[in-house]
Amino acid sequence: MDTQDLHDRGLRLRCELFGAAAVEQRVNALGEFGAPLQHLINAYAYGDVWSRPGLPLATKSLAMIAMMAAAGKPAELRVHLKGALKNGCTPEEIREILLLVALYCGIPASIDAHKAAVEVLREAGPR
Questions:
Q1: pTM for this structure?
Q2: Residues 79 and 111 in one domain
Q3: Integer angstrom CA distances of residue 99 from 28, 32, 44, 90, 106
Q4: Which domain holds residue 117?
Q5: Under DSSP, is residue 30 helix (H, G, I), strand (E, B) or coil?
Q6: Given 1, 31, 88, 105, which residue has the most CB atoms within 10 angstroms?
Q7: d(Cα 27, Cα 31) in Å, to the nearest integer?
C-alpha cells in the first residue's frame, strides 16, 4: 500500500473516531506549513497503526488517554477522551485508566487529566 492509500484510509478512520468537523479543524490548523505533519499523522498513525486489527479501538483509546495524561499533553488528551467516548469507552473505564496514571505516573498528571475528563464528559452529556 502506498502512502496516499495509507493517508486516505487514515483520514477516513480519523473522521470516524473524532468526527469530520474536528478532524478538518485539526488538519487545517497549521495551514500549508502543517500539511506534511498531517500527512504523517493520517498515513502512519491512523492509516497504519490505528488500523491494525490487534487491539480494539476502545483499548487503543484508553491507552492514548493514559499516555497523553502521563505526558502532560492536555489538548491531545481532550481529543482522545472524545474519541474514547465515540469508541464506546465508558466514563468508568476512563476513570480507572486515570487512577492507574495516578499510581504509576503521578498524582498531578492524573488530577489534570481528571479535570479534562470531567469537562469532556460534561460536554458529551449523560451516558
A1: 0.90
A2: yes
A3: 34, 39, 30, 14, 10
A4: 55-127
A5: coil
A6: 105
A7: 8
